[in-house]
Amino acid sequence: MKKELIVSQDPKSPISEIIRTLRTNLQFFSTKGKLKTLLLTSTMPSEGKSWVSSNLAIAFAQAGKRVILIDADMRKGRLYKMFDIAQTPGLSNYLSGIDEKENATEREKDNNLINHLQTTEVENLLVMSAGNVPPNPSELLSTERMVDMLERMKQVSDIVIIDGTPNQLVTDALIISRMADATVVVTADKRTKKEDLKKVINNIEQIGGKVAGIVINMIPTTYKIYEKSYYYGSSSKAKVKTGKRTADPKKSDYSMMGENDDWYSFSHLARDWWWIKRHWWISWNDRRSSRSWIWHNHFNFSLYGRLLWSRCAKKN
After folding, report:
1. How far apart are the first and last CA of the chain?
2. Lower CB count within 10 Å: N or C terminus of the chain?
C-alpha cells in the first residue's frame, strides 16, 4: 500500500487521530445506526477526496466494522493504485452487466458482485475499483443496477464508503448523493472557493441529498502543534521542519525513552533539559504564606529525572 494511507502505515500519528475523530463524528451523526452508505465528494480535483475516503475506510475497518470502499470516479479512479490492487474488474464492469446472465438467480448475482470486490492488506476492508473507463459513466450510475448493488452491499457490510467525483465538473456525485445516506464534502485550505462550496451544497440538497459535514483538508501546520498530542509525536521516520532546526519525530517520541538508557549521553541529557526548560514554566505561590512551586508538564520533568538518575547509577 502507498504511504498516503497513513492510518494504516502510521496509526499513532496525529493525522490518524484526526481521521478517527472524523469517524467518531460520523457515527454520532446517525444515532439510530442508519448511516450505511457514505459519499465523499469535493468541489474541484486535487482537494484530497480520495485520500480522506481511503483513510476513513481504514479507520472504520480498524474499529471492527465491515467496510466496502467503492471508487465511483470511473473517469480518473486511483484507489487501485493506493491499495495496490487490480484495476479491473470494477464498478463500470459490474454496472454494465456484461459478465452476468440475463435470468441470473439471486445467488448468482451475489457471486457476481463478490467477484468485483477485492481484498486488501487491511482486515475487514474490501475495495471495488473503478474498472475500465466507460463512455457513459453518468448513465451507468443512474440505472437500477446501481441501487440494487448498494442494497446488496448494505446487507453484507456495516458501512459502504463511496469515493465520488468532483461535484463542479461532472454530475456523477450528484446522482449518487440521492442514493447515499449522507454526503461529506472535502475542501482544501486556501484553495476551495466559498462560492463553489455553497453551490455544491445547494445542488446536493436540492435533489434530496443530505450533507453530513465539510472536511477542510491541507491545512498547513508545524511540528510544534503536534508535540502536544496524546502520543507525543509520530512514529514515522519522516523529518518535520520546525523553524530553524529540523526535528526527527522518532527521536522526539518521549513515550519510548528510558527503555535503552545507553543511547543517552550527558550531551543528550543536557539537550533534553534545555527542551524541557523551554516548554514548561514555574510559578511562585505565596497565598498561604508558604513557598511552593507549581510544576507544569510533570511528564517531561519526571522523564528527565529518571534519565539522569539512571545515568548516575550506572556511573557509580
Report:
1. 50
2. C
CA-to-CA distance for 274 and 217, rounded, in angstroms? 34
Total length of the chain: 316
Residues of the chain with CATH 3.40.50.300: 6-217
DSSP state of 23: H
Domain 6-217: top CATH class? alpha beta
Phi-psi region of 50 (alpha: psi -120 to 50; beta: other; left: phi over 0): alpha
For residue 101, give Cα distances in angstroms to 29, 112, 116.
40, 10, 15
Q: Which residue has the cell 480498524?
A: 62
Burial of residue 264 (CB within 10 Å: 0-12, 13-18, 19+) is: middle
Distance CA 212, CA 215 (A): 10
Distances in Å between the Cα of 139 and the Cα atoms of 76, 85, 172 are: 17, 26, 9
- Dump pLDDT digits (tens) for 183-228: 999 999 989 999 999 999 999 999 999 999 999 998 886 645 545 5
